[in-house]
Amino acid sequence: MSLTASPLSDDRLHGLDALRGIALLLGVVLHTLMSFFPVPIWVVVDDQTSPVASTIFFAIHLFRMTTFFLIAGLFAHMMLGRKGLWGFAKDRLIRIAGPLLGLWWLALAAIIAVLLWNVAIQNGGSLPTDGPPPPPLTVETFPLTHLWFLWVLLIFYVAMLMLRAPFALLDRNGGWGRMVDRLTAALVGPWTPAVLAAPLALAFYLHPNWTAFFAIPTPDTGLVPNAVALTGFGSAFLFGFLLDRRRDLLERIRRLWPVFTVVAFGTGAGALMLAGGPVPDLTPVTDPSAKAALATLMALAVFSGAMAAMSLALQLFSRRSPVRRYLADASYWIYIVHLPLVMVGQTLVLGLAAPWWLKASLVIGGTMLVSLITYELLVRHSFIGRWLNGRRIPWKRQAEPAPAPAE
Asked: Which stretches make up the Acyltransferase domain (predicted)?
C-alpha cells in the first residue's frame, strides 16, 4: 500500500465530518461557561456561578481539541492522497494560513474592544487612566487568541510533510508502508487510549507549572506551543494520519464505542476528583507521587474521551444528513467569530437577575443566532465561503434541464 492510499470511500466519513464541526461548536459552550466558574478565571466574571458550569467545562475541554486534531490528521492524509503534495500545500495555505493571517487581527481588535467596554462598565462608565501598559509583543507573548489551533495545524502540516518526504522516497516497494499499516492495526483496540496516553502522561509530569484542571494547556499565547500541547495534539494528529491509511479500522473503532465510552466517563470522573473536584484548584501540582498518578489518569481520560467521541460519531452520524453537513460547514466561521460575540453576551447578562444556566443559555443562543445569520448572509454563498470551506454554495441551484422528448 502506498503512503497516500485509503482503502475505503469518503462516504464512510460523514460521522467524522460532523464530529469535527461539533468539536468547533463546543467552543461556544466552553467559552461561555468560563464566566460562571465558582472561581474567577475569565475576563468577564458573573455574580451567578456554579460548580456545574466548571464541571461541564472540564468534560468538554478534556477531549475536544484532542478529538479535533485526531480528525484533522486523518483528513490531512486523505487530502494529500487526493490532491497531491502541491495541491495539499495550496489548499492549506488558502484555507488555514489565509484565515489566520486575514481574520486574526479583526478577532483580536473585537476582543480588545469588548474588554475595554467591560472595564469601562466595571469602572463606572469610563476607562481607568492608571492601568498597566500592555506587554511587549514578542515570540513568547504573541496573542494567538482562540485562533491558536490554526497556527498549531500549520506547524503539524509542515512537520508531517518534512517527516513524510524521506519515507516516500525510500518506500519504493511499499515495505515501510505495510509495516506502518500493521503497527496501526495493532494499535487499534480497547488498549488504544492507554498507548496514546503514555507520551502525554510523561509530558504532564515534566511540565513544571501544570494546572491539572485544564488538562492540556491551551497554547493561545506565543508562537512556540508548549510541550504538553505539542505532545498531546501531535500524537492525536499522527494517529489520525496513520489511521486514514487503514480506514477499514474505523469499523473496529465504531464497534468499540461502549468500551471507550465507559472508560472515558470513569477516567474523566476520576481525573476531575484528583484535580480538585468541580470547584477548580488552580495551583500547580507539586507533589511528585500525586503528580505522577494524576498525569497518568488525566492523559488516559483525554484519549479515552477522544476515542469515545470518535466511535460514537461513527456509530450515530455516519449517514448523510443535510442539517449536520450545514452545521459542519458553518462551524469554521462560527468558531472564528464566536469569542467576541460570547464576550458581548456575557457582558450584557451581567446585571440580569437570572440563574447562571439561563444566562449561559442566552449567551450561547445569541452567539449561535448571530453567527449562523452572518454565515448564511455573508459567507456561505460568497467568496468567503469558497475561502473557508473550499466551495461557494449558489443562492439558488439551477433546475435540472428537462429531458428531451422521445422521438
From this structure: 14-375
> How is residue 92 written as a grid cell?
492549506
Q: How far is residue 28's CA from residue 330's CA, in Å, rounded to a whole number?
A: 13
Q: Residues 46, 363: contact at Cβ < 8 Å?
A: no
Task: Return the domain boundaries, the chain.
Answer: 13-389
Contact 160, 76 (CB under 8 A): yes
Ordered mean pLDDT values, 10 residues apiece, the chain (407 residues): 39 84 97 95 93 97 97 95 92 95 94 89 73 78 94 96 82 78 94 97 96 95 96 98 94 97 97 92 90 97 98 93 93 96 96 94 98 96 90 69 47
CB 139 within 8 A of CB 88: no
For the entire predicted model, the pTM comes to: 0.91
